Amino acid sequence: MKTAVQAGKPVLLEHVRITDGFWTDYLKLVREVVIPYQYETLHDRVPGVEPSHAIRNFKIAAGEEEGEFYGFVFQDSDVAKWLEAVGYSLAVHPDPELEQRADEVIDLVAKAQQPDGYLNTFFTIKEPGKRWTNLTDCHELYCAGHMMEAAVAYYRATGKRKLLDVVCRFADHIADVFGTGEGQLPGYDGHQEIELALVKLYQATGEEKYLKLAQYFIDQRGVEPSFLVEEWKKRNGLGHWSPVPSKNPPNLSYHQAHLPVREQETAVGHAVRAVYMYTAMADLAAYTGDETLLAACKRLWNNIVHKQMYITGGIGSTHHGEAFTFDYDLPNDTVYAETCASIGLIFFASRMLRLEARSEYADVLERALYNTVIGGMARDGRHFFYVNPLEVWPKASRGNPGKHHIKPVRPGWFSCACCPPNVARLLSSLGEYLYTVSGETLFVHLYIGGEAEVELDGGLSARLRLESALPWEGKASLELSLPSAAAFTLALRLPAWCSAPHVAVNGETVDVQACVRDGYAYIERVWSPGDRVELTLPMEAQLVRSHPQLRANAGRVAIQRGPLVYAVEEADNGHGPVSSLVIRKDAPLAARFDPKLLGGAVVIEGQAMAEEEAAWSGGLYSAAEKKATPVSFKAIPYYLWGNRGEGEMAVWLRE
Amino acid sequence: MKTAVQAGKPVLLEHVRITDGFWTDYLKLVREVVIPYQYETLHDRVPGVEPSHAIRNFKIAAGEEEGEFYGFVFQDSDVAKWLEAVGYSLAVHPDPELEQRADEVIDLVAKAQQPDGYLNTFFTIKEPGKRWTNLTDCHELYCAGHMMEAAVAYYRATGKRKLLDVVCRFADHIADVFGTGEGQLPGYDGHQEIELALVKLYQATGEEKYLKLAQYFIDQRGVEPSFLVEEWKKRNGLGHWSPVPSKNPPNLSYHQAHLPVREQETAVGHAVRAVYMYTAMADLAAYTGDETLLAACKRLWNNIVHKQMYITGGIGSTHHGEAFTFDYDLPNDTVYAETCASIGLIFFASRMLRLEARSEYADVLERALYNTVIGGMARDGRHFFYVNPLEVWPKASRGNPGKHHIKPVRPGWFSCACCPPNVARLLSSLGEYLYTVSGETLFVHLYIGGEAEVELDGGLSARLRLESALPWEGKASLELSLPSAAAFTLALRLPAWCSAPHVAVNGETVDVQACVRDGYAYIERVWSPGDRVELTLPMEAQLVRSHPQLRANAGRVAIQRGPLVYAVEEADNGHGPVSSLVIRKDAPLAARFDPKLLGGAVVIEGQAMAEEEAAWSGGLYSAAEKKATPVSFKAIPYYLWGNRGEGEMAVWLRE
To answer: I want to staple B164 with a disulfide (CB 3.0 to 4.6 A). Which of A625, B155, B647, B651 is the partner?
Structure first.
């Protein structure tokens, strides 16, 4: 099974400094706007934004204030995600004032922990007798997982153990409560998250019990009789979200609990839960060498990326349950494609990459990152898409209830703030997704400019400096600082979007075809200090088509250039409905950097035929032919759409 | 305002005998299968069909049995619709046994009437103290309206007054309860129906108070302060459909109560309620000469047929509220297009036609009738579509929750049996939609073969015999039997689907262009006994396109031949997804009668390019071009789709 090379372990965030022209803007935005803004919202201090009450909940649970719990049952996780983002930010950008704030929040969280290690403000304040009675709905272990991720990030950045100790005690408590032993609850959470968090806790502490607990949650899921169904019976059908008992047991597929995970063939149910779970499965497969688990991961990966993923790296075809539907069902205008789900897909991809150095994982990671994830955030860092459609008609968003979830512009921070803090934590930890090391091989997965210090087997350490013109130009160079000449392998990802990659070392062309394997060019040599690798990845604007089974895109093309998918917006194309444009495939597509467009971006211009509304003589239906005139059209990167007011947008255009 | 000729009053059902080859099958099916089957379901005697309990409810309310109310709050209307269909059936096809059954049901209904005239089994049995407290949800006046329609139909067919007297007493009671006077309820029903029924009751009895009551309901609707909102406040937000009080007042647009009816500009809300209301508005405009009401009818008509109607005559773009959405929003795959709504559109069209002899009304009536309405019923008379989609992918109906309402084959009788009895009552009264008389002009609106006796002004009576080859061939002839030669005008509808109609009287060509007005050829002459009119309406299979604003159909064509819209089904086209077909507009479309196809039908065969899935080398997305090979395709009439098992279907095909 494991014939592929393992890409190994990531070069950790604290050893990577991003100085890339494209990305530093985003990292700065997260650091200077998103994290402070989120801190203020958690403290209910942003005028016009619905109070979060998240910090107040902790104060009440800690006995510092009187009051009632307020917010979603998973409100605690907003505090955790903020702390996690702060941890990543501090790892690369020390900020004593921010650290002081975080320490105060951590003190508060610690104070809210119960004597037995339990930590959850909803059940502490509001339903103290009902701990662990509704795993299906109540996100108790989900919130625990987020706090664990935060603790690990903060510990790694600052060396401070306070929050780590809190979550270890909580994890120990959870390990007592859950399991298949006498007197234990044979359960698992309705919303996966703790599984991957426990792996991180194991990595940070070396405590094997946390890895085993993660494994327990993964193994127990989907086992018959279903814990979620039994639990529902015990509650007499009462749930958290409805005041009346439900006649129907929970939808197990929604929770990926319909089958033991190793028997799952296709990605189903709530997309975020699914990819969080697959991430943990891949983690566990890496640590345990469990081949059945690895096989399940590969099956589920293949199902997603070859049958259920939008070209933007979005996943989740329906807003009903924010869920996957079925193979090739990828409607552009009723899509969900939650920002969080693409972030989870990046987690999954990064874990698969550690198991197998196959560039497809990094290709998908890049696709999700450059399109859906950064598209999820407005240029001001204060407005976010939860749903990332590929086709928008603003009137339909308002006037057709089946499209109410499709927003034509990014709304402000929601009371359910899952996506914004998720974007913040992903972007502030971006450095950790660039490189991995396996034995004496250093893998370069993403061409994001900056510096990194890496340790290879045999005590070899190197410092490398990457310069990149991506995503605007397909050029990158890598300079190595070594204490002395050393033999090792540099494995460079050759992106699938580039058909003619060129690599040179110190000006000498490398025979890429001779050294490529699974999408990586393996350059094995004795490297000297100052050696310089140049990559040229010619980037043509291309028309992309979809698999014939993907009915929604029949007769349509999308435009892609390098990692970026493009969108046509009404703002640039005043020819009536976007649907009236027919792309001329014979005409060239011209790429041009427009410095004025939303921070500067390469736009694509091409030729189309535009059907003229004025020339239409029929009513609603007519045998008349449509008249079309040649027009130029302009497409902008998808991640920038919806930043210039309301208008129509489409990724897939008629050809 | 009233510049158009009025097409006047319908030639009543009892004076029309349909002998048409196409339609007699349907009428026979309704008579021999649907009505008896419905009778059995009402009596809970059909194995495998959820009990209706409708007759039992009446027995309980009448004191004949003990028990609880069961079924929808509007369950009574199923009994009423059955009686109405029976009335129409008996008018043209006497059947003593059926009449005996109906008399028994009527006896039961009469017995369930309360001493004050009130009649509703739900409130009589289940909530006796709560009459008229929830007009928004509870369909009390709606059920009353259906019983009135039944009574009028039965009285007209049999001359028996029993049910008519029952509903008159009920209407008198309603007139006492409702109104703007002291101690009256200033209300109206959440589901319009009684308005048009009261007009019929006026027509049958000559009692002006019923017309005035109809007018009151129409005039009061949408008046501020909103009755429905005030009622909701009085109920403290409690509704019929949810056990918990609603924080939001009723959605007034859903009920077409957001504005006074004369101020309504576009069709909004629940489509069936809308068209039932517009029907009554047109009726009232005819009787009262109220020009503001007529103007509203015209605006709403134009909005529907020029901006919100499917090519099949379906209306209602969303299943959320079974409702209209907004102009040009006509998605084919998430559509609602309820059978009942198209029936209501036929009611509205027939009333507009009486006001104005403009063929557009009859064109739309014909479109809805030949496509959506008869398509709503399976060839066995026991399975029905409520939703009539224009594009079906059976996997999506199961696998995408946004399309669960789209059924790939007709389900059996539902517990909510609104559509099947509605089809039954429409088809059994079909004769009444063919002709109208205005002064000395006889209008022929639909070319459905049969005989009719008509009375024109001046005591002139004529007997006519129409033979028609529609919808398969564009030929019809009309023979007149007159007591003696007489001068009058025959106005023949020239359907919009025919570009070169030809009319001859006794073999002599009529100069149609010289005598056409608003789509009718007015042939004014002294007619002699035995005169014969021949119509030739050449019927080409045509490719039809949509208005450029109708985004869902951009780049697509539909096939229409005569009144029939065509659909391409997987059963006839084994080239992979229907979406892989691209119609060649340069290739001819051939029409051929296939006697084996579901009772015999003209199929259309043409040429297309089919994209080959086997030749696709890419994965989900690729810059590869698609290979296509020329294939023949076959389309069948839309009304026949879904009769050969599950498969893909599409009306709009890529061009």
So the answer is: B155
The percent of chain A in helix, strand and coil, each rounded to the nearest 5, is 40, 20, 40
Tell me the shortest Cα–Cα distance from B45 to chain A, in angstroms. Answer: 27
- What is the phi-psi region of residue A11: left when phi exceeds 0, alpha when psi lies from -120 to 50, beta otherwise? beta
Give the gap in angstroms from C-alpha A576 to the nearest C-alpha of chain B.
Answer: 8
Tell me the per-residue pLDDT of A64-101, one tens digit each, with 9 for 90 and over.
999 999 999 999 999 999 999 999 999 999 999 999 99
Give the C-alpha separation, A72 to A110, whole Å: 21
Q: Catalytic annotation on B143?
A: no
- Do B649 and B570 touch, CB atoms closer than 8 A? yes
Q: Which of A329, A613, A626 sits opposite B399 (nearest CB)?
A: A329
Ramachandran angles phi, psi of A461, nearest 5°: -120, 145
Q: Is B83 left (phi over 0), alpha (psi -120 to 50) or beta?
A: alpha
Interface test with B, best of A566, A620, A649 (most B CBs within 10 A): A620
Query: Can you tell me the distance from the alpha carbon of B388 to that of A15, in angstroms, rounded to the nearest whole number?
Result: 61
Task: Kindly state whether B583 is in contact with chain A, defined as any CB-CB distance less than 8 angstroms.
Answer: no
Q: How far apart are CA A355 and CA A3, in angstroms?
A: 10
Tokens 């991640």 -> residue: A639
Q: Output the DSSP codes for A535-583.
A: EE----EEEEEE-TT-GGGTTEEEEEETTEEEEEEGGG--SSSGGGEEE
What ipTM did this prediction achieve? 0.94
For residue A10, the model assigns a pLDDT of 94
B419 included as an active-site residue = no
Q: A587 CA to chain B: closest CA distance, Å?
A: 15
DSSP notation for A419-462? HHHHHHHHHHTGGGGSEEEETTEEEE-----EEEEEEEGGGEEE
Q: Which residues 610-639 of A have a C-beta within 8 angstroms of B?
A: 611-613, 616, 618-626
What part of A 187-246 touches B (C-beta under 8 Å)?
243-244
pLDDT digits (tens, 9 = 90+) for A365-386: 999 999 999 999 998 888 999 9
Paired strand residues for B653: B557
Residues of chain B with Cβ-Cβ distance to A321 below 8 Å are 401
Identify whether the C-beta of residue B544 lies closer than 8 Å to the C-beta of residue B562. Answer: no
Rounded Cα–Cα distance for residues B154 and B156 (Å): 5
Residues 122-181 of A with CB under 8 A from B: none
Q: In the predicted model, what is the mean pLDDT of residues B480-501?
A: 95
Classify burial at A514, counting beta carbons within 10 Å of its beta carbon; exposed 0-12, middle 13-18, buried 19 or more.
Answer: exposed
Tokens 């959405």 locate to B325
